[in-house]
Amino acid sequence: MRFCIHRGTHEIGGTCVEIESQGKRIVLDIGLPLDVTDPDAMALHPVPGFDKPDPSLLGVVISHPHQDHYGLAYRLPQETTFLIGEAAQSILEAADFFTPAGLKLQHVIHMAHRIPIELGPFTITPYLVDHSAYDAYAVLVEADGKRLFYSGDFRAHGRKAKLVEQLIADPPKDVDVLLMEGTTLGRPESEQGFPSEDELVPKFVEMFEQTDGLVLVWASGQNIDRLVTLYKACRRAKRQLILDVYTIHILRATGNEHIPQAGWQDIRVFLPKSQKRRILQDQSFELVNPLKTYRIYPEAFATEADRSVMLFRPSMIRDLDAIEHLKIGRLIVSVWGGYLKNEKNKPLMGWLEQRSIPMDRCHTSGHADANLLGDIRRAFPQALLVPIHGEAPETFARWPDRLLVGNDGEWYEINY
Ligand SMILES: [Zn+2]
């Protein structure tokens, strides 16, 4: 068995790993690099089967539904077999209707926690992990008597922390190569550790309680853990949570009845103009008609502002500006801080200033801190450690034994 990291040895995102055994191949992730603005124009990695169908490419694993792991999948031939979690696939399909970043896959094998999948010479065993994307997996790949473990993106301070603790307590044995993400390594916060999702709840509650008027929370509609956090905080602060139709469909796509949904107490549904346009264009009224009872219409926003929290994205500014006499008390930014520096979000800053809306932050990382990365490294003591999905692979030198800092596009034979 040999492997090649086509992209991701020295950057966060754009991950793509090819593994070969007996002339057959599989690929782990086909991510859109964070700095690529035109994915249509990006040259695909030199993997047979990417440009046109090739029977030696047996499957492409999508570890989790984040664009930097699946964002180039739409460029592959329709015949390509994908391995992805069932909920992850549903989430990408639900997103596909409303955003250009969604994905519809034709040929799919569903991954499930610790259920091995045989694919030619490969045995692929997925391990469900804790991450800010729902239905995220690490995978063990076995062939030719060799074993490679790919961590995917993970953490242990979210709502599935136990799974990662179990992985550390009972890891696959005799792993030869460990491809481990290092997103946060090199950042001082990573050494201190990140707050847990549950620790965010009282922080949100306090901010909600201190606000007159509507609270806006900017968070991803696909960060399910965060939406659960917000719902819990809303219940405690006695505010209703207003979610847009897109987010409601993402929540439903998880297939998990324990996750907040339309119909739950104090969840209201809002249809932003952009989503309304999309529904009208496609005549897809079945997406909104069943939600009628839970809808909140613009007129009610002003009168119910004091007892509402709204999940916000900068694209909703126009919807809010169209509502008369709406008092917006605060914006809480609950996404990665880097987005704030993005040129694209300059109009948001101008808008906040113009409407005198104070901005606060309340967030925790989707990725492992330095301590947890050390725990994972030690769980695979015999493995060659190969950094991936990090900007500073040299920071892995804190685990100097059996360390290989590779380069994009280089092949490595697993033969020791
Ligand atoms: Zn991710």
Describe the structure.
The protein is α/β, with parallel strands linked by helices and 416 residues long. The chain has 2 domains: 2-189 and 366-413, Metallo-beta-lactamase, Chain A; 197-361, 3-Layer(aba) Sandwich (Rossmann fold), CATH 3.40.50. It is built from 13 helices and 19 strands. Strand 13 (240-244), helix 7 (245-253) and strand 14 form a beta-alpha-beta unit. Helix 2 runs antiparallel to helix 7 (245-253) and helix 5 (197-209) packs across helix 6 (224-237). It is globular. The model has no long low-confidence stretch (mean pLDDT 96). Bound molecules: zinc ion. Residues 64, 66, 69, 131, 133, 153, 366 line the site of zinc ion. Zinc ion is lined by residues 64, 66, 69, 131, 133, 153, 366.
Number of domains: 2
Shape assignment:
globular
Please give the alpha-carbon distance between the first and last residues. 11 Å
The CATH class designation of the largest domain is Alpha Beta
Structural category is alpha/beta
- Strand tally, please? 19
Major sheet: order of its strands?
6-5-4-3-2-1-19
Rg for CA atoms: 22 Å
CATH topology (fold) name of the largest domain: Metallo-beta-lactamase, Chain A
**Overall average pLDDT:** 96
Main sheet record: 7 strands, mixed
CATH level-two architecture of the largest domain? 4-Layer Sandwich
- Count the DSSP helices: 13
Uncertain segments are: none
Fourth-level CATH superfamily of the largest domain: Ribonuclease Z/Hydroxyacylglutathione hydrolase-like
